[in-house]
Write a structure and sequence with these properties.
about 240 residues, mainly alpha, Four Helix Bundle (Hemerythrin (Met), subunit A), about 0% strand, globular
């Protein structure tokens, strides 16, 4: 039984996760471009942040293994093309993530280098793919999950994804979620220990990465927001 009393999935928290994705991934390309050439220290800070937010896409493997097969089995056949569409979008996102990881590994200079610009372009593609995928998922897939996926199945998928997060990254990632999602987005048993710790951890992380403890919110950014990410670079150079 979900928290709203229904035997089916309560997907409300995923909208909050998507808000976090929209904010964090929209910020990445301009963050890379704001790093001065040959500023290796700053480039490493940004690279570590890119790797961290890449961990946030862990839930996709759960959807691939659980959500899509169950919807194809239980929902009307008319929605099969939608499920196959979002499956394909996952593959596109995975391909761009692989490209991003390779560019991060090969990078030796700051964002003004050719390597830095190639990384920023890949992150542009990643943000665009994510925004398109989340929009379709919210409009067409989550309403289906609320009618065809049991709460226990949904919760297991969520729990399995959370278990893949390295413990040392937990407070920062929880703070990322709470920044716009509030304390309710955290499992009840973790609310007391994380209520203060997680927001502080994210504020400190954001100060280091973005130059501010309060980065733009998801409603203030988009795939091509021009000003995002320049604060930290401008302040330091």
């Amino acid at each position: 039984m979900s928290e709203n009393g229904s035997p089916y999935a309560d997907t409300r928290d995923l909208y909050k996760v998507h808000a976090m994705f929209r904010r964090e991934f929209a910020l990445l390309p301009a963050l890379v471009r704001s790093v001065a050439a040959k500023d290796q220290e700053r480039a490493e800070i940004v690279a570590d942040h890119i790797r961290l937010v890449g961990l946030l896409l862990h839930h996709h493997s759960g959807e691939d293994a659980v959500l899509w097969p169950l919807l194809l089995t239980r929902a009307p056949r008319e929605i099969d093309p939608v499920v196959h569409l979002v499956e394909g979008q996952h593959q596109t996102i995975e391909d761009v993530l692989t490209e991003t990881s390779a560019l991060l590994a090969a990078r030796t200079g700051g964002a003004a280098s050719e390597e830095g610009e190639a990384l920023a372009v890949a992150l542009d593609k990643l943000a665009a793919a994510l925004f398109e995928h989340m929009s379709i998922e919210e409009r067409l897939v989550l309403p289906l999950a609320e009618r065809h996926i049991f709460a226990s199945e949904w919760q297991k998928m969520v729990d399995d994804g959370a278990a893949r997060i390295p413990p040392e990254a937990g407070p920062v990632i929880a703070g990322m979620l709470m920044y716009e999602g509030g304390l309710d987005v955290v499992p009840p048993e973790l609310r007391a220990p994380l209520a203060d710790r997680a927001p502080r951890a994210y504020a400190a992380h954001s100060e280091r990465v973005h130059g501010t403890p309060t980065p733009p919110r998801s409603t203030e950014v988009g795939v091509s927001t021009p000003y995002v990410g320049i604060t930290a670079g401008a302040d330091r150079h």
